[in-house]
């Protein structure tokens, strides 16, 4: 669940990843950490378009890759003139448009989540704040991360803690999951494969690795293909010719992939199977139906390693496991040597809007998930599908039982 409304408590004139009415009422500067739709809430709404059009000094800061993506996506390209690039590792001073005497220094770093994803470091008169956005840093990577090496004392850490649960101590590294996928495909020379993804971006390592190993292009739809005009090293692994390949990641599924082996690239399903131990990132669910544990978020151990190395004074989670309670959260923080006062209490922030829509993994194993629109903004039934997904999440009491 999301536990952050987008407004920095220390600098309320700044909002990150939220463009709702509440944000417009108090913020004049906006940041986008990455382009997954749960971090663009309200950006496509007429209310925000009217707000920013009537206040043309307001800017939306993001990475160069994110600006490219947003400028060609139909739901967000109308705001192209307001997207401003902020470069990685280059400190940048930003003034409050409503008070030129107030300014902060912003430095951004890669977050390892998806193309263009950023961590944001804010330094000003009300303390030093680090916002991780969604991130995936392996434990052996974090000690080489620039924010760690900078040794800057962090007053408040706004951090993605999606899998902050000791039962999710480890998740396969993406390289490990990809190697398992390659080994599996190697066993079926003449079969078609359908890779079910649930977000626009984040699977580039899969695409390029499959292409490099097999020399086979991956079929995607035209919108997805041209999304990578900015990243030719990814685009060269893709094709819009459905008949020229046996590897498909198209949405919706094309006719060539109808009788394929289906592999859902996901992680939440695996984290819900707490009573099971998996010996492989790739699990067979039924005939020609598999799941690959492929996580764009840090595991519990990776989160803990990052927190210990940052050593912040205060922690504000931007996302937490749905089942965690405030007391449990503070207990886990104490185990990391962080005894916050006052104790943090939280509640879901706009929960129905904050569904992690890139995950399609809470459906039971026998359901047909081909029609879940999720993060693709396509199809006339998107709103109904999203409501059904929210209902399934709300009603979820126990992990699904595999038959």
UniProtKB/TrEMBL annotation:
Keywords: DNA damage, DNA recombination, DNA repair, Endonuclease, Exonuclease, Hydrolase, Nuclease, Nucleus
Location, primary (coarse class): nucleus
An individual GO BP term: DNA recombination
Gene3D superfamilies reported for this sequence: 3.40.50.12650, Ribonuclease Z/Hydroxyacylglutathione hydrolase-like
One GO MF term attached to the UniProt entry: damaged DNA binding
Chain ranges of the DNA repair metallo-beta-lactamase domain: 280-317
Localization annotation: Nucleus
Cellular component GO terms, alphabetical: nucleus
Alphabetical list of InterPro entries matching this protein: DRMBL, RibonucZ/Hydroxyglut_hydro
Keyword field contains ATP-binding: no
Family to which this protein belongs: Belongs to the DNA repair metallo-beta-lactamase (DRMBL) family.
Identification of the protein by name: Protein artemis
Origin species: Rotaria sordida
Lineage: Eukaryota, Metazoa, Spiralia, Gnathifera, Rotifera
């Amino acid at each position: 669940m999301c536990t952050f409304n987008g407004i920095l408590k220390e600098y309320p004139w700044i909002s990150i990843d939220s463009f709702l009415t509440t944000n417009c009422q108090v913020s004049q500067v906006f940041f986008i950490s990455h382009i997954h739709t749960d971090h663009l809430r309200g950006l496509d709404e007429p209310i925000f378009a009217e707000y920013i059009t009537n206040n043309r000094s307001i800017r939306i800061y993001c990475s160069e890759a994110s600006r490219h993506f947003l400028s060609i996506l139909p739901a967000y390209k109308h705001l192209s003139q307001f997207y401003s690039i902020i470069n990685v590792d280059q400190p940048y001073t930003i003034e409050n448009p409503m008070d030129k005497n107030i300014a902060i220094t912003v430095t951004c770093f890669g977050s390892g989540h998806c193309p263009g994803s950023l961590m944001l470091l804010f330094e000003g008169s009300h303390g030093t704040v680090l916002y991780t956005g969604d991130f995936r840093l392996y434990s052996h990577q974090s000690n080489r991360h620039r924010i760690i090496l900078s040794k800057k004392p962090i007053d408040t850490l706004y951090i993605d803690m999606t899998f902050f649960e000791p039962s999710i101590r480890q998740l396969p590294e993406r390289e490990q999951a990809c190697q398992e996928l390659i080994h599996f495909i190697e066993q079926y020379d003449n079969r078609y494969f359908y890779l079910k993804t649930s977000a626009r971006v984040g699977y580039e390592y899969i695409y390029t690795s499959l292409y490099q190993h097999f020399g086979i292009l991956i079929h995607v739809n035209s919108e997805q293909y041209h999304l990578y005009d900015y990243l030719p090293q990814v685009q060269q692994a893709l094709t819009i010719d459905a008949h020229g390949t046996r590897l498909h990641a198209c949405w919706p599924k094309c006719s060539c992939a109808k009788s394929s082996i289906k592999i859902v690239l996901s992680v939440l399903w695996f984290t819900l199977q707490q009573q099971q131990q998996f010996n492989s990132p790739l699990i067979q669910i039924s005939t020609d139906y598999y799941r690959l544990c492929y996580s764009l978020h840090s595991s519990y151990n990776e989160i803990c390693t990052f927190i210990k190395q940052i050593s912040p004074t205060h922690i504000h989670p931007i996302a937490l496991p749905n089942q965690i309670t405030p007391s449990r959260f503070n207990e886990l923080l104490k185990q990391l040597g962080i005894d916050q006062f006052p104790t943090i209490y939280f509640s879901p922030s706009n929960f129905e809007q904050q569904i992690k829509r890139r995950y399609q993994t809470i459906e039971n194993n026998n359901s047909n998930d081909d029609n879940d629109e999720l993060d693709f903004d396509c199809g006339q039934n998107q709103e109904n599908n999203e409501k059904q997904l929210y209902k399934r999440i709300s009603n979820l009491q126990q992990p699904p039982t595999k038959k």
